[in-house]
Fold each of these.
Amino acid sequence: MGLILVALTRRHRRAYPRRAPFNVSTIGRRFRSASWGLMEPLIILGGIFSGVFTPSESAVDADYSDTDVAALRGTAWDRCGAFWH
């Protein structure tokens, strides 16, 4: 309770702006944009438990997938149609 009171007091004194109201479509968009990162533990653990790769190999896979997701973030997928066909 004490930490909540401290946080609320600081917010009031520093005049932090209020957040936007709760919106379900915003949560959907954010979840969709984070879907690759949220699937990564499932892919890694699924690969380990199914015997596809070892824990050491999964660490390399995690590193490369993080790099790939970071590189592809913000890519305009509608412009990549020729690449996929």
Amino acid sequence: MRVRDNFVGIPEDAIGQQIEFLHDILGQRPLFLEVLQRARRLGLPGWYLAAGCVAHTVWNVLGSRPPDEGIRDYDLPYFEPNDLSRGAEDMASTPGGSRPHDRAR
């Protein structure tokens, strides 16, 4: 299934505008970009940035609040098929874990 198939009934230009709007919002957030850079450096297999922080950022901007307000974490789900142990998950969680002292606000 193509991404476009999820937007049946929405005019093509409206989708393009929404994607551009989302890109503009997220691309101007230094903390968001830092999270993506750190995530890449972790080298986790099949990782992605979960949508909670994305949706919350958009709602904050639309509500004229600071973009990062209320966002306490950035979740990075991933899948490592060769080691499904809790120990492997704990090791992967440590490098990108909460570091309040270097979180830009």
